[in-house]
């Protein structure tokens, strides 16, 4: 009888430990998911920055996030130009006010590399690829406590030409957008864009 009780209690104890470990693992992954989803849902475009410079490790993290993006057939048809020079940032801001670089600490120009695109009708998938890289950079910036805004260049030919001239982008590359980045000097509330009319489900 005593042996039976010890066996049952031991089994219950082992079960409790197993459940505890499983629950801890599960809640750990839920926490990670919460953090990722929260980062996506709380991002907002930031267009005003303090004059604090970025540190190089932050810029490398942003570039790593950009290059981690998916791309059609993994072509990675992108090139990134990082502009830290204050006079050049000002010049770009003067020439292209939409880039919001007046107070930004740095700009990342996301370019499509036409030597690496898919062929024929699939060529323009480079736009999807570079857009995915851009969004990764925006989300990484937000996760680092930085502010950023995606500003459009391509397909506006005037913007493409001006930026190409100012940042020496070769003809083999097309600047898709400029991401203005810095320490945020504003904290706009994230816009609630949830709209059930914007999707349909096929079951
Ligand atoms: C393709 C694209 C081009 C954009 N161009 C500009 C721009 O030229 N200047 C600007 O200030 N914001 C620009 N934005 C940012 C949008 O205005 C912004 O994402 C939108 O208003 C939604 O606000 P949110 O980013 O805070 O959610 C652009 C965004 C995208 C995706």
Describe the protein in words.
- The protein has two domains: 1-42; 56-182, 3-Layer(aba) Sandwich (NADH Oxidase), CATH 3.40.109.
- The protein is α+β, with helices and mostly antiparallel strands and 203 residues long.
- It has a four-stranded antiparallel sheet with strand order 1-2-4-3, with helices on both faces.
- The protein is built from five helices and four strands.
- α3 runs antiparallel to α5.
- Bound molecules: flavin mononucleotide.
- Residues 44-45, 47, 98, 100, 149-152, 191 line the site of flavin mononucleotide.
Please outline what is shown here.
This protein has 203 residues and is of the alpha+beta class. It has 5 helices and 4 strands.
| CATH homology group of the largest domain | NADH Oxidase
What's the count of strands? 4
Ligands bound to this protein structure? flavin mononucleotide
The dominant shape is globular
Number of helices: 5
Low-pLDDT segments: none
Radius of gyration: 24 Å
| Helix-strand makeup class | alpha+beta
Secondary-structure map with pairings?
Layout: H1 2-42, H2 56-67, E1 78-83, H3 86-95, E2 106-113, H4 125-143, E3 147-152, H5 157-167, E4 173-182
Antiparallel strand pairs: 1-2, 2-4, 3-4
Helix pairs in contact: 2-4, 3-5
Flavin mononucleotide binds next to strand 3.
